[in-house]
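quick one, two chains, predict together pls
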Amino acid sequence: MRSDILKLLEKNGKLAAEEIAIRLDLAVEKVEEVIKQLEEDEVIVNYCALVDWDKIEREMVTALIDVKVTRERGIGFDEVAKRIYKFSEVSSVFLMSGGYDLSVKVEERTMKEVALFVAEKLATIDQIQSTATHFMLKTYKKDGVVFKKGSQEDERLVISP
Amino acid sequence: MNWEEVIAPRVHQVPPSGIRKFFDLVSEVDDVISLGVGEPDFVTPWHIREASFYSLERGDTMYTSNYGLLELRKEITKNLKANYNVSYTPEEEVLVTVGVSEALDLALRALVKEGDEVILPEPCYVSYKPSTILAGGRAVKVQTSCENEFKLTAEDLERVISEQSKILILCYPNNPTGAIMERDELLEIAQVVKEHDLIVLADEIYAELTYGKEHTSFASLPGMKERTILFNGFSKAYAMTGWRIGYATAPKPIIQAMMKIHQYTMLCAPIISQKAALEALRNGRKEVDKMIDAYNQRKRVITKGLNDMGLDCFEPQGAFYAFPSIERTGLSSEEFAEMLLQEEGVVVIPGEVFGESGRGFIRCSYASSLDNIYEALTRIERFIKKI
């Protein structure tokens, strides 16, 4: 039941408890209670909107930076990640398997600002061995939602047996 | 040329389609929201569409065996065994067809002798009666009722059986009512079927779409496989209506008889659709489950909405239709549907299109987005308050 509620909220954070109750055939009070508990346990961390920024005129660039970390005794990935995520420019940090260790997403107004942030702040952290910066050019799909102009028409016959 | 005289009397016997006139009405109304659609609103899952691109690239553009690709028949039998515990031999007891509609037509043509009676529990899918007439049979109706949640009862069935009775067509989960029949209820029907030596055409196209209750295949009941032709396909569960692909499974002699007609009329189902169906059976479970989940949520929204506004609606257990009574509005279901369309732009199908016992009911398909369902409910409620 918890994961059913979470699945619905993950898709639409504005969904009212009454609506969830109908769709999952549960009592409203029960749904409210579960959501409250999920919030308290920080399973639900935040409610936010999924925005297609490409539709808005604004100066903002997003970069994904592959970061390789040199490990030292007593300093693990968590410590390095913490030093990185404290920067307000950084919007996400993931620990990765494969060719590099941390994937860091940075948002700035210009490419130059991102480059400066990488050169001056990120690359200068002792444990960071190397960085590779990729700028994101366009969002096609995010969190399961395809970003496109206009929604597709329902082309089915209006009536069928 | 006087075509009226030239055209075969059999075709004249087929009554005109009850939904035809709604097509004309709809074209005159703007901003229409349709709960009148008998097919999924989902597009065929991407992995199935993608598999068909690859298949075309490889050059799969030829005829297949009249029976259908053997690997598809094998996958079909594997699936039927796993899901419904019925065993068929892929080499001899499966025929892949152009949808269940073709398979039903083949079965009726292969079985019906002039004057044989085909028993149709109503309300039922609109093609059963015309197909029966075109095959030279006599359609005998047996009415089901809302009190029994539109299930067929052994008693009612007994009442219509005569010397000429030969075939019983069962469709559960049911279009248009959303009714299902559970194992113990089907066992009672099986008893009557055996006693009167009937053949059952079990149209189980909505088998995958049940909500909370498991589907029982009629062929899985003791002694019934030998007298059942089981129909299923890909249109509903896999959202593949336009691919026109389905199948029938049955004892060898009847499959052979059906194949004889199929080979001279259709030759085989399109290979591209057969390849897509193969992918659907092999890797489609996850997507089907997602769609079932979505239908289930919409079903709860629409039945609650209809009941709350006073249109009594039993909780459908399968397919994607709600079948509320509109009797308390004082309108006939046809008047209701027509006025609702003209005044609020909402399309629903009057119940009598599916048979007499559908009178006083409307079919509302919830194969539509939740946004559409909410909007339709708002408009229906406004309409009811006006009348």
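Chain B has 14 helices and twelve strands.
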